[in-house]
Structure prediction request, 371 residues.
Amino acid sequence: MKGFSDTVARLLIMLAPALLVFGCASTPPPVSADQTGVRIALVGDIMLGGTATEFVERHGYDYPFEHVRAELARADVVFGNLEGPLTDRGEPLDKRFVFRTPPDKVAPALARAGFDVVALANNHTLDYGPEGLFDTLAALSGAGISGVGAGVDSDAARAPVVVESGGLSIGFLAYSNTFPEAFWATAERPGTAFGHEHHVRADVSRLREQVDVVVVSFHWGQELATELRDYQPRLGRAAIEAGADIVAGHHPHILQGVEVYGGGVIFYSLGNFTFGSYSENARTSAIARVRVGPDGLQAVELTPINVYNPEVLFRPQVLDGAPAQAVIDELQRLSAPLQTVIRAEDGRARVVLPAPRDSERFDDGQDHNRQ
Prediction:
């Protein structure tokens, strides 16, 4: 990695977070005047390569979002986990699964789909080395999207991203607690932010003083497991205790439970969103949507989606009727041990919040089209 310590490249990457915050990040339109709070949509894993390559090259890189674009447009800020670098350079690492996708195609497609921020703190961001990471940051910035959770060193990887919407500032942090260990950034090495609990608490507490809303992403847990590893509740709750409003988990590729804790909400795993794999295990998932204001959570809901690629061919689809209810039933089962109550309303899973915040149903107001 020493070959990539070029001074100019380092300076550009170190400046990227500031540029994203103050000039390049896309700014969603304000919520309508009769609303309070900002609506944040959160989705699972995104990887538009692998077995999806044939379809996106044939139909275009907007293809994966055709059936969920309207759902994402119901939010003011959209966040997801980007698995794998956006690069045409670098050498693949010696690991079982290695991903990369073309930066000039994927980044603009994500922007057109409505994404404002993506997490880079995961076990694929450095699949093509530091070059791939640097290309990813540059491609996202060029498309008006902020990447969070990875950088030229540990300080840059732990740096927050802040976006403004509806008169509120929303801060994002992202951490990876997955191997390979060589991907974790150090003071001298590019990489992802590792989720040490003391770092999480310090970073969230510091960010809490600067913004109205805090969102924290963790890449954690065990793939294809609905059971939580012991450290997941510990870290998720630590983030909430330090001041986070929302915690979004990724990596298992399937849904895990939802917990309402200390005034915040933890989505332990949002599963896949659009992911280039014909996995027989990743069949359903959900788009989470949270309305949050300066005083905290106002409403939380999850929209069931079909992500079983042998059926949807890499285009997630919103579910309704019995299939949607089956996902809601599963969320209720997974969340019950966490003392979370979930109700089915109009084909969506509504998370019951402590009174008085649960006094109203989720109010969409006017849908926003940010294309």
Residues 2-351 form a domain with the Purple Acid Phosphatase; chain A, domain 2 fold (CATH 3.60.21.10). DSSP finds ten helices and 18 strands in the chain. The chain has one domain: 2-351. The longest strand covers residues 296-306.
